[in-house]
């Protein structure tokens, strides 16, 4: 029992020593930029040349890729014992869709009834992605802010170690935010499936006299 108490006191002393070596370095700033993507209509490909085409008979396809990239501006201070205190001064996050590509089979010419029906269908998918991200943007920002608030200064004994520490901080933040982002992806997928049903396809096929 005495040994366990001694070991506990040693751990407390060590933790306090590390904390005392790194003074309060201020609160890091979150800079988050949401990108909703510009719609790009591609009309010069047959459906067999579409990327990620789920069916050989598909007439249109919306392709988006929700990406996120985080980087940090680091604050590094020398310590009295010859080490370095490293802290994220600012977390920069880019998240969203670099682009939104809508493919429409080239056999349907722009302006025709068929083309317009397909375009309307694919525009729905694009809006789901863009408006869905806008809807969740506040929650995403809050999640990053909470994750960032958990990051504390770390003492290292080399500049290389300081860079490694900063990288681990960003990795930890991304791990904390990952469950929310997985949920966002799931909800976007569910909303997209609303009009990707047999009943929806049959209703749309009746809007034009010939396909």
List the helices and strands and how they pair.
Elements: H1 2-21, E1 29-35, E2 39-42, E3 60-63, E4 67-78, E5 84-96, E6 100-104, H2 113-149, E7 154-156, H3 159-192, H4 198-205
Parallel strand pairs: 1-5, 2-6
Antiparallel strand pairs: 3-6, 4-5, 5-7
Task: Summarize, please.
By secondary structure, the protein is an alpha/beta fold. Helices cover 47% and strands 23% of the residues. It has one domain (24-205).
Describe what this molecule looks like in 3D.
- Mean pLDDT is 87; it is low at 4-20.
- By secondary structure, this protein is α/β, with parallel strands linked by helices.
- Helix content is 47%, strand content 23%.
- The chain contains four helices and seven strands; from the N terminus they run H-E-E-E-E-E-E-H-E-H-H.
- Strands 1, 4, 5 and 7 form a four-stranded mixed beta sheet that branches.
- It has one domain (24-205).
- The chain starts with a helix and ends in a 6-residue tail after the last helix.
- A hairpin with a 5-residue loop joins strand 4 and strand 5 (84-96).
- 24% of the residues are buried.
């Amino acid at each position: 029992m005495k040994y366990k108490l001694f070991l506990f006191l040693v751990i407390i002393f060590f933790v306090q020593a590390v904390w005392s070596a790194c003074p309060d370095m201020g609160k890091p700033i979150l800079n988050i930029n949401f990108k909703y993507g510009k719609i790009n209509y591609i009309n010069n490909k047959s459906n067999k040349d579409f990327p990620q085409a789920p069916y050989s008979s598909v007439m249109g396809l919306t392709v988006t890729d929700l990406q996120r990239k985080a980087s940090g501006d680091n604050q590094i201070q020398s310590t009295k014992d010859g080490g370095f205190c490293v802290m994220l001064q600012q977390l920069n996050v880019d998240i969203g869709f670099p682009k939104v590509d809508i493919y429409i089979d080239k056999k349907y010419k722009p302006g025709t009834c068929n083309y317009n029906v397909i375009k309307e269908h694919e525009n729905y998918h694009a809006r789901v992605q863009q408006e869905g991200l806008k809807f969740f943007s506040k929650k995403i920002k809050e999640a990053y802010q909470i994750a960032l608030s958990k990051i504390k200064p770390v003492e290292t004994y080399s500049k290389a170690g300081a860079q490694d520490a900063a990288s681990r901080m960003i990795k930890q933040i991304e791990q904390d935010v990952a469950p929310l982002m997985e949920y966002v992806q799931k909800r976007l997928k569910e909303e997209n499936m609303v009009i990707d049903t047999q009943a929806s396809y049959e209703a749309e096929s009746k809007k034009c006299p010939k396909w």
